[in-house]
Amino acid sequence: MIKILGDVMLDRWIKGTATRMSPEAPIPIILKQDENLNAGGAANVAVNLARLKIKVDIWGAMSNDIEGFTLLNLLAYEGMSINIKRDADYTTEKTRIIGQGGHHVVRLDREKFYTGNVDDDFVETLERDDIVVISDYAKGVIKIDTVSKILSKTHNIFVDPKQSPLFYTGAFLVKPNMKEYMIWNGDFEVASAIKFMRKYDWTWLIITEGSKGVHILHTDGHYHHHKEPSKEVADVSGAGDAFLAVLIYGINKGYSVKQSCELACYAAARNVEKQGVVPVSPQDIDRGVVWTNGVFDIIHTGHLELLKFAKSQGKKLIVGINDDDSVKRLKGADRPINKCEVRKKQLEILSWVDSVVVFSEDTPKNILEKIRPDVIVKGGDYTVETTVGNDLAKVIIFPKLEGYSTSNIINKLVK
User: How many CB atoms lie within 10 A of CB 227?
Assistant: First the structure.
């Protein structure tokens, strides 16, 4: 079960136009045209997961005010399990005034630090396999000993932080943005970051950096950087919540942390292209990654038609090719005709091919486990059942073009 603990809030968006300045002060007058309400903070993380068809429990604190009841109605509509105490002085609310062109004019916050207690009741419900998501906005729900209490039940703790790193000692994964990390530990540098995360006993440190991508660090010293381009940044509000939600979605689906971060990075890039706080949708995480593989020794018409078709099945085509040793095992000692480096370069210059990867095993099973494509395309020599990876992705068989094969070309040359 995924259980979210954190600071829930109500986001209010007031949109209008400014055509004149106030005579009372040097500020624009906004003529109100529209108003929208959204679940914010930890509640927004819960809504994002609910929209991805994941069952969640949301825990937090609010008041018995009109803002609180509005927030409850928004969450009830999403069909999640709601465990929110109503003993706060105020329900935290953020009101954003948006002018023409989607530009933020001002933000008005209504809040009071929460001094009550939620985490004791929360911990009582935990089971060993639960995934705990801490969405901390430093409004009072997350205390200095909250994580230590949770560790008595489960170590599957994923944190979006806003307070001192001491609050999250022992968490499995901590996800600050770059600004938050630099407040903690100065300028980013891999060795320093690894040392820093070990100090607080984190297994993973994930640092998001907006359009510059995400830094993925493991306590064993492994580092990976990933970046997804966005067409145009319309609004970054809620992007961090969307990233966290998709990261948890991936973990829940059995993806590795690295795979989940890459998927979350893709979803966040789609999210900032939209105005306002818009929950992610299944379409936002459909990367449209297509895979096909083979030797591709001598490129011929059959190959070209297969690759053209494969590209049409999604947004990104990744082609896997066997290295030279595995080709010899599969095709015989006189193959390949072209070395791996040549075959790779020939494929990379084709307009349909986005990426080429080389694998050394006889089948691409291991690399498919890492890439997790959405679609696998194979030629007519195969069936869905005989295609490696049919348990990981949708398989499409492209009808074989008779008369085109590398073996036929080689035989003609020999004759």
Answer: 12
Q: What's the predicted TM-score (pTM) here?
A: 0.76
- The CATH code of the domain at 2-279 is 3.40.1190.20
How big is the chain by its Cα radius of gyration, in Å?
Answer: 26
d(CA 287, CA 354): 13
Q: What is the pLDDT along the chain (415 residues), one digit of tens a residue?
A: 999 999 999 999 999 998 899 999 998 899 999 999 999 999 999 999 999 999 999 999 999 999 999 999 999 999 899 999 999 999 999 999 998 877 888 999 999 999 999 999 999 999 999 999 999 999 999 999 999 999 999 999 999 999 999 999 999 999 999 999 999 999 999 999 999 999 999 999 999 998 888 999 999 999 999 887 665 554 456 678 889 999 999 999 888 898 899 889 888 887 767 665 678 888 788 878 999 999 998 888 888 999 999 998 888 999 999 999 999 999 888 889 899 999 999 999 999 999 999 999 999 999 998 888 989 999 888 999 999 999 888 899 998 766 556 666 666 666 6
For the chain, the structural domain boundaries read: 2-279, 289-414
Comparing 2-279 with 289-414, is the CATH topology the same? Answer: no
The residues annotated as belonging to the active site are: 241
CA angle centred on 268, ends 265 and 270, rounded to 5°: 115
Instruction: Output the CATH code of domain 289-414.
Output: 3.40.50.620
